[in-house]
Design a protein that fits this description.
- The chain has 171 residues and is an alpha+beta fold.
- The radius of gyration is 21 Å and the shape is elongated.
- Strands 1-8-5-4 form a 4-stranded antiparallel β-sheet, covered by helices on one side.
- β4 and β5 form a beta hairpin.
- The model has no long low-confidence stretch (mean pLDDT 87).
Length: 171
Protein backbone atom coordinates (compact mmCIF):
# COMPACT_ATOMS: atom_id res chain seq x y z
CA UNK A 1 0.00 0.00 0.00
CA UNK A 2 1.20 3.50 -0.79
CA UNK A 3 -0.67 6.53 0.49
CA UNK A 4 -3.53 4.23 1.47
CA UNK A 5 -4.02 2.75 -2.01
CA UNK A 6 -2.75 -0.51 -3.54
CA UNK A 7 0.69 -0.01 -5.09
CA UNK A 8 -0.58 -1.57 -8.32
CA UNK A 9 -2.48 1.69 -8.94
CA UNK A 10 -0.53 4.75 -10.06
CA UNK A 11 -0.31 6.91 -6.96
CA UNK A 12 1.97 9.95 -6.78
CA UNK A 13 4.41 9.86 -3.89
CA UNK A 14 3.30 12.61 -1.51
CA UNK A 15 6.09 15.22 -1.49
CA UNK A 16 5.93 18.68 0.03
CA UNK A 17 7.08 21.54 -2.20
CA UNK A 18 9.79 22.61 0.26
CA UNK A 19 11.09 19.03 0.75
CA UNK A 20 14.85 18.51 0.53
CA UNK A 21 15.61 16.61 -2.70
CA UNK A 22 18.17 14.40 -0.92
CA UNK A 23 15.52 13.37 1.62
CA UNK A 24 13.07 12.63 -1.20
CA UNK A 25 15.68 10.57 -3.08
CA UNK A 26 16.52 8.62 0.09
CA UNK A 27 12.83 7.88 0.70
CA UNK A 28 12.31 6.73 -2.89
CA UNK A 29 15.37 4.46 -2.60
CA UNK A 30 13.96 3.05 0.65
CA UNK A 31 10.57 2.39 -0.98
CA UNK A 32 12.32 0.66 -3.91
CA UNK A 33 14.16 -1.55 -1.43
CA UNK A 34 10.91 -2.31 0.37
CA UNK A 35 9.27 -3.31 -2.92
CA UNK A 36 12.21 -5.64 -3.68
CA UNK A 37 11.90 -7.18 -0.19
CA UNK A 38 8.17 -7.73 -0.79
CA UNK A 39 8.95 -9.59 -4.00
CA UNK A 40 11.86 -11.63 -2.59
CA UNK A 41 10.23 -12.45 0.77
CA UNK A 42 6.80 -13.00 -0.83
CA UNK A 43 4.95 -10.60 1.45
CA UNK A 44 3.26 -7.21 1.35
CA UNK A 45 3.57 -4.18 3.58
CA UNK A 46 1.21 -1.39 4.43
CA UNK A 47 3.50 1.62 4.29
CA UNK A 48 2.75 4.42 6.74
CA UNK A 49 3.12 8.08 5.73
CA UNK A 50 6.32 8.20 7.79
CA UNK A 51 8.58 5.16 8.18
CA UNK A 52 10.17 4.96 11.65
CA UNK A 53 13.99 5.11 11.63
CA UNK A 54 14.26 1.60 13.17
CA UNK A 55 12.24 0.26 10.23
CA UNK A 56 14.42 2.22 7.77
CA UNK A 57 17.49 0.47 9.21
CA UNK A 58 15.70 -2.91 9.13
CA UNK A 59 14.76 -2.41 5.46
CA UNK A 60 18.41 -1.74 4.55
CA UNK A 61 19.54 -4.69 6.68
CA UNK A 62 17.17 -7.12 4.95
CA UNK A 63 17.64 -5.71 1.45
CA UNK A 64 21.43 -6.10 1.28
CA UNK A 65 21.75 -9.88 1.85
CA UNK A 66 18.53 -10.61 -0.09
CA UNK A 67 20.07 -8.95 -3.15
CA UNK A 68 23.64 -10.25 -2.75
CA UNK A 69 25.05 -7.24 -0.91
CA UNK A 70 26.51 -6.78 2.56
CA UNK A 71 24.57 -5.19 5.39
CA UNK A 72 26.41 -3.43 8.18
CA UNK A 73 24.50 -3.47 11.45
CA UNK A 74 25.41 -1.46 14.52
CA UNK A 75 25.17 -4.00 17.33
CA UNK A 76 26.96 -4.90 20.49
CA UNK A 77 27.31 -8.66 20.75
CA UNK A 78 26.99 -10.81 23.83
CA UNK A 79 27.01 -14.50 22.98
CA UNK A 80 28.24 -17.96 23.79
CA UNK A 81 30.51 -19.87 21.43
CA UNK A 82 31.40 -23.56 21.61
CA UNK A 83 35.09 -24.30 21.12
CA UNK A 84 37.39 -27.29 21.40
CA UNK A 85 39.16 -27.59 24.74
CA UNK A 86 42.70 -26.87 23.54
CA UNK A 87 45.66 -25.10 25.17
CA UNK A 88 45.18 -22.15 22.79
CA UNK A 89 41.52 -21.76 23.77
CA UNK A 90 42.33 -22.09 27.50
CA UNK A 91 44.94 -19.34 27.07
CA UNK A 92 42.29 -17.11 25.44
CA UNK A 93 40.05 -17.68 28.47
CA UNK A 94 42.84 -17.02 31.00
CA UNK A 95 44.02 -13.82 29.30
CA UNK A 96 40.50 -12.65 28.37
CA UNK A 97 41.81 -12.68 24.82
CA UNK A 98 40.18 -11.58 21.60
CA UNK A 99 38.63 -13.45 18.69
CA UNK A 100 36.82 -12.49 15.54
CA UNK A 101 33.97 -14.74 14.50
CA UNK A 102 32.66 -15.44 11.03
CA UNK A 103 30.02 -18.07 10.50
CA UNK A 104 26.60 -18.95 9.17
CA UNK A 105 23.28 -17.99 10.73
CA UNK A 106 20.80 -20.46 9.29
CA UNK A 107 17.57 -18.47 9.65
CA UNK A 108 18.19 -14.74 9.90
CA UNK A 109 15.05 -12.65 10.34
CA UNK A 110 14.37 -8.92 10.46
CA UNK A 111 11.24 -7.17 11.77
CA UNK A 112 9.98 -4.59 9.26
CA UNK A 113 6.82 -2.56 9.89
CA UNK A 114 5.66 -5.11 12.45
CA UNK A 115 6.32 -8.18 10.27
CA UNK A 116 9.03 -10.80 10.75
CA UNK A 117 10.79 -11.09 7.40
CA UNK A 118 12.69 -14.30 6.68
CA UNK A 119 15.98 -13.26 5.09
CA UNK A 120 17.31 -16.81 5.15
CA UNK A 121 20.85 -18.02 5.70
CA UNK A 122 23.50 -15.35 6.09
CA UNK A 123 27.16 -15.27 6.99
CA UNK A 124 27.78 -13.06 10.00
CA UNK A 125 31.16 -11.42 10.53
CA UNK A 126 31.61 -9.85 13.95
CA UNK A 127 33.91 -7.10 15.07
CA UNK A 128 36.60 -8.14 17.53
CA UNK A 129 35.10 -10.05 20.49
CA UNK A 130 36.61 -10.39 23.96
CA UNK A 131 36.38 -13.68 25.85
CA UNK A 132 34.79 -12.96 29.24
CA UNK A 133 34.47 -16.47 30.69
CA UNK A 134 33.94 -20.14 30.00
CA UNK A 135 32.59 -23.41 31.32
CA UNK A 136 33.12 -27.03 30.30
CA UNK A 137 30.54 -28.91 28.24
CA UNK A 138 30.39 -32.35 26.66
CA UNK A 139 31.49 -30.71 23.38
CA UNK A 140 34.50 -28.82 24.81
CA UNK A 141 34.28 -25.30 26.22
CA UNK A 142 31.47 -22.82 26.00
CA UNK A 143 32.99 -19.35 25.81
CA UNK A 144 31.17 -16.20 26.84
CA UNK A 145 32.10 -13.35 24.51
CA UNK A 146 31.14 -9.71 24.02
CA UNK A 147 32.11 -6.96 21.63
CA UNK A 148 35.58 -5.75 22.60
CA UNK A 149 35.40 -2.32 24.28
CA UNK A 150 37.60 -0.64 21.65
CA UNK A 151 35.47 -2.12 18.83
CA UNK A 152 31.95 -1.19 19.99
CA UNK A 153 31.62 1.26 17.08
CA UNK A 154 32.43 -1.39 14.45
CA UNK A 155 29.51 -3.03 12.62
CA UNK A 156 28.44 -6.62 12.32
CA UNK A 157 28.50 -7.57 8.62
CA UNK A 158 25.83 -9.81 7.09
CA UNK A 159 26.07 -11.35 3.62
CA UNK A 160 24.00 -14.00 1.89
CA UNK A 161 25.30 -17.40 3.00
CA UNK A 162 27.07 -19.27 0.24
CA UNK A 163 28.27 -22.80 1.14
CA UNK A 164 30.90 -22.57 -1.63
CA UNK A 165 32.57 -19.70 0.26
CA UNK A 166 32.92 -21.89 3.35
CA UNK A 167 34.43 -24.72 1.30
CA UNK A 168 36.97 -22.44 -0.38
CA UNK A 169 38.02 -21.00 3.03
CA UNK A 170 38.52 -24.50 4.40
CA UNK A 171 40.59 -25.62 1.43
Amino acid sequence: MLAGKPATECVPVPVQDEADQQVVDTMIELLEQLIAIERLAVTTFEVPMSIPSADEAAIRTAYAPLTGGTAEVDAKITATVTADDTPQIRELVETKGFIQATGPVTDYQVKILGQDIHVGPVTMETPLLQVTGSHSTDDGLELSVRTAPDHADRPVRLTRYNPADQQSQGA
